[in-house]
Specification:
It catalyses: ATP + protein L-histidine = ADP + protein N-phospho-L-histidine. The strands form five sheets. Strands 1, 2, 3, 4, 5 and 6 form a six-stranded antiparallel β-sheet that branches. A five-stranded antiparallel β-sheet has the order 12-11-15-14-13. Strands 17-19-20-22-21 form a five-stranded mixed β-sheet. The chain has four domains: about 230 residues, 2-Layer Sandwich (Beta-Lactamase), CATH 3.30.450; about 100 residues, PAS domain (Beta-Lactamase, 2-Layer Sandwich), CATH 3.30.450; about 80 residues; about 140 residues, Heat Shock Protein 90 (2-Layer Sandwich). It contains 17 helices and 22 strands. It has about 650 residues and is of the alpha+beta class.
C-alpha cells in the first residue's frame, strides 16, 4: 500500500511537471502566434496597398483613352466641316467637361498659339487671350504636335488657372492649312478625386508624383511612408512616367485593430493557463492506465477524422503517420506514404526546396519552410497530376525528440473558383467599358446630327415658308420639336448613367438650408404655377452630397406642382418621426394604384403632355437613383384626387439605420 501511495505521488509530481511544461510551451507558442499575427496583419495591409495602387493605375489607364478619343473626335468634326461655329463648339465642349470630371477646360488655340475660346469660362478667365509661347516647354510641345500633325500629351505643368495638371494638344489642319489646336486641360486633383471612391481616400494616404514633383497628395499630416504596409510603383501613360505611393492611415488609438495583437497575446496566455490547470486535473483524475489509454484512442480518432490532412514527420523530414484525409488528398495508401520524405508529395520547384531542408527548428530557413505560417505549394498525385495545396507546419517535442506536424488542404476547388471569379470580373469590366463607350457616342456623336437636323429644318422654314404652306411648316416645326425632345432624352439618359458611376463627396449639412436653396431656385416657376412650398417639422442633420439632395428635392417639388389642378397648389416638406423618413407631399391629382412602381421607370409618362406639359419622364427615375446612391430607399402613398406623399430615407455616416 505504501508503494501504491508512493507511485500515486510520483504520478502527481509528473502531472505537475507536465502541466508546467505545457503552460510554458503554450505561452511560448502564444508569443510566437502573436508575432506571426502582427507580420500577417502587416502583410495583409501591404497587399491591400498594392491592390489599391494598381486600382489607381487601372482607373488612369481605362479612363484617359475615352477622354482623348472624345477630344480627337471634336478635332475631326472641325476638319470635316471646315470650321465650327462658336455656339455649337461651345455646347460640344461643355458636354465634354460635364462628362469628364478631370477635364478642367477645353480650349481652341489659334495658329499664333493664342487661346481664343475657353469652356467653361468661369474659373478659367486667366486662360483667355493667353499666349502659350510664354513658356519654352509649352511652345516646344505645341510645335511638336503641329509638325507631327497628331495629338501630343504634355508633361505635368503648373496650370495658369491654378493647380497642377497636364495638357493634350490636337492640331487642326484643314487641307494643308494649319488652323490651331483643340486643347484639353486636365487637373490631376480633380481627375484622381473623380476616379477614386470616397472610402478609398478616407482610409489610405495617397501621393502621385511625376519626376520628383508631387502632383497629388491626400495624407495625414506628418505621417510618412512605411514600406512595411505601403506600396510604391510606377507606370507610363502617353510617354509620361507617374509614381504612385499608397499606405494606410494611422489606426486610431484604442480601436479594435490597434489592440488585436495584444488581445490575442493575452487571450493566448490566459487560455494556456486555463489549459494547464485543466490538464493538471485531467491527469490527476486519469492516473489509471486504462483511462489514459482510452483518451489516447479518442485523440487518435479525432486526428483520423479531421477535415484537413494531418502528417507527422520525424527529425529527418520522413513521414511517420498520416490520417485518412491525407490519404485521400494525395490518392495514396497509408503504407505507401509512411517512410517517404515529405518532399516526395510535391512537384517542382517545391520538391527540390524541401529535399534540401535540414529538419531542425533552428536551421529551417526561408525558402524551405516557415514554421507557423501557411504556404501555397504544388502537390502531386501518384499519377503525376499537380494541384494547389496549402501547407502549414508546426514543431513539437515528445521525450526530447523533435517532431513536426504538417496540416495540408487541397485548394483545387478554391483556386478554380477564384479563377472563374476573376474571369467574370474581367468580362464585367469589359462590358462596363463598352457601355461607357456607347454612352459617349450617344451623348456626343448622336447630338451632332440631331442639331444639324433641327438647324436645317429651321433654314427650310425661313427660306421656303411661302412655298411649303401651313401643312409643310407644321411638319418642319414638328421635326424641330421632335429633335429637341430626342436631344433632351439623350442628355437625361447620359446623366442617369453618370449618376450610377460617380462617387459623390459626402458631408453633413442642414436640410432646411437645402430646402430653402431649392425653393429659391424654383421661385419663378412656383410663382408662375401659383404654388407654395412649406416646411412643417424639424429635420435631423443630413449626411450626403448636398448638390444631389437639392436635385432630389427639385424633382419632387416640380412633380408636386406640375401634376396638380388645385387653385392653390401646396407642396409640404416634413420629417416623419415614426417612419424615420423625409416626406414631400402635395395636393395634386394623385397616382392610380395600378401603376405601382412604374412611376420610377425612366421615360415612363403616366399623363398626357398636352394637359400637364412636356417632360422626358426621367425626373422620378433620377430621384430614385440619388436616394439609392445615398444608401436609402424611396416610395410613395397616393389616392386619386387627394395628392401624393413621396417618402425617402438617407443612410447616416455613423449609424447603421435609415432616415438620419
Amino acid at each position: 500500500m505504501i508503494n501504491n501511495i508512493g507511485n500515486s505521488a510520483q504520478r502527481l509530481k509528473l502531472a505537475v511537471a507536465v502541466v508546467l511544461s505545457g503552460v510554458i510551451i503554450s505561452v511560448l507558442v502564444s508569443v510566437r502566434i502573436w508575432s506571426i499575427s502582427i507580420e500577417q496583419h502587416n502583410l495583409l495591409i501591404k497587399r491591400t496597398s498594392i491592390a489599391k495602387s494598381e486600382l489607381i493605375e487601372h482607373h488612369f489607364a481605362s479612363s484617359m483613352p475615352a477622354i482623348i478619343n472624345a477630344l480627337e473626335r471634336m478635332r475631326n468634326r472641325w476638319i470635316a466641316r471646315r470650321g465650327t461655329p462658336f455656339s455649337e463648339w461651345q455646347l460640344d465642349a461643355q458636354d465634354y467637361v460635364n462628362d469628364h470630371a478631370g477635364l478642367r477646360a477645353v480650349e481652341w488655340v489659334n495658329k499664333d498659339y493664342i487661346v481664343k475660346w475657353v469652356v467653361p469660362l468661369e474659373g478659367n478667365e486667366s486662360a483667355v487671350d493667353l499666349d502659350l509661347t510664354f513658356e519654352a516647354n509649352r511652345k516646344q510641345a505645341l510645335d511638336l504636335a503641329r509638325d507631327l500633325k497628331t495629338y501630343t500629351v504634355s508633361k505635368p505643368v503648373q496650370l495658369v488657372q491654378g493647380g497642377k495638371g497636364f495638357l493634350a494638344y490636337f492640331p487642326i489642319f484643314v487641307g494643308s492649312e494649319f488652323e490651331g489646336f483643340i486643347l484639353g486641360v486636365f487637373d490631376v486633383s480633380l481627375l484622381v478625386d473623380s476616379l477614386l471612391p470616397h472610402k478609398f481616400i478616407e482610409d489610405h494616404n495617397i501621393e502621385i508624383l511625376s519626376g520628383n514633383e508631387v502632383m497629388y497628395s491626400k495624407k495625414e499630416a506628418e505621417l510618412t511612408y512605411d514600406d512595411k504596409t505601403g506600396h510604391t510603383h510606377s507606370f507610363s501613360l502617353y510617354d509620361v512616367k507617374w509614381d504612385i505611393a499608397v499606405w494606410p492611415r494611422k489606426i486610431k488609438e484604442g480601436s479594435e485593430n490597434s489592440n488585436i495583437h495584444y488581445i490575442a497575446l493575452i487571450n493566448g496566455v490566459l487560455i494556456s493557463l486555463l489549459a494547464g490547470i485543466a490538464l493538471f486535473y485531467l491527469l490527476k483524475s486519469l492516473i489509471s492506465e486504462s483511462i489514459i489509454s482510452a483518451k489516447d484512442a479518442e485523440h487518435k480518432a479525432t486526428l483520423e477524422n479531421a477535415i484537413d490532412g494531418i502528417i507527422t514527420l520525424d527529425s529527418k523530414g520522413v513521414i511517420r503517420s498520416v490520417n485518412t484525409t491525407a490519404e485521400q488528398i494525395f490518392d495514396r495508401q497509408r503504407g505507401k506514404l509512411i517512410g517517404q520524405k515529405l518532399s516526395a508529395l510535391f512537384a517542382e520547384p517545391f520538391r527540390s526546396d524541401y529535399e534540401q531542408c535540414v529538419w531542425r527548428k533552428e536551421q529551417l530557413k526561408e525558402g524551405c519552410v516557415e514554421i507557423g505560417k501557411v504556404q501555397r505549394v504544388a502537390g502531386m498525385l501518384k499519377n503525376g497530376h499537380v494541384f494547389p495545396l496549402d501547407l502549414g507546419i508546426t514543431t513539437f517535442e515528445i521525450h526530447k525528440e523533435q517532431l513536426f506536424c504538417c496540416v495540408v488542404k487541397d485548394m483545387s476547388v478554391a483556386v478554380k473558383l477564384a479563377e472563374e471569379k476573376e474571369k467574370l470580373i474581367q468580362q464585367l469590366s469589359k462590358s462596363n467599358e463598352e457601355l461607357d463607350n456607347f454612352a459617349y457616342i450617344a451623348s456626343h456623336d448622336l447630338k451632332e446630327p440631331l442639331r444639324a437636323i433641327q438647324n436645317h429644318a429651321c433654314f427650310l422654314k425661313e427660306d421656303y415658308e411661302s412655298i411649303l404652306g401651313s401643312d409643310g411648316v407644321y411638319k418642319l416645326d414638328r421635326l424641330v420639336y421632335l429633335g429637341a425632345k430626342m436631344e433632351r432624352l439623350i442628355s437625361d439618359l447620359m446623366y442617369y448613367s453618370r449618376l450610377g458611376r460617380e462617387e459623390p463627396d459626402m458631408a453633413r449639412f442642414n436640410m432646411v438650408s437645402a430646402i430653402k436653396s431649392t425653393q429659391s431656385r424654383l421661385s419663378e416657376s412656383l410663382e408662375e404655377h401659383g404654388a407654395d412650398v412649406t416646411i412643417s417639422s424639424d429635420f435631423p442633420a443630413v449626411y450626403g452630397n448636398r448638390t444631389r439632395i437639392e436635385e432630389l428635392l427639385y424633382n419632387l417639388i416640380v412633380n408636386g406642382y406640375k401634376y396638380n389642378l388645385s387653385d392653390k397648389k401646396v407642396i409640404n416638406i416634413r420629417f416623419d418621426e415614426n417612419l424615420k423618413a423625409f416626406c414631400v407631399e402635395d395636393n395634386g391629382i394623385g397616382i392610380d394604384s395600378q401603376f405601382g412602381n412604374d412611376v420610377f421607370k425612366i421615360f415612363k409618362r403616366l399623363n398626357s403632355p398636352k394637359k400637364f406639359g412636356e417632360g422626358s419622364g426621367a425626373g422620378l427615375t433620377i430621384a430614385q437613383k440619388i436616394v439609392e446612391r445615398h444608401g436609402g430607399r424611396i416610395w410613395y402613398e397616393s389616392e386619386l384626387g387627394s395628392g401624393t406623399r413621396f417618402y425617402f430615407t438617407l443612410k447616416d455616416d455613423n449609424q447603421n439605420n435609415e432616415g438620419q
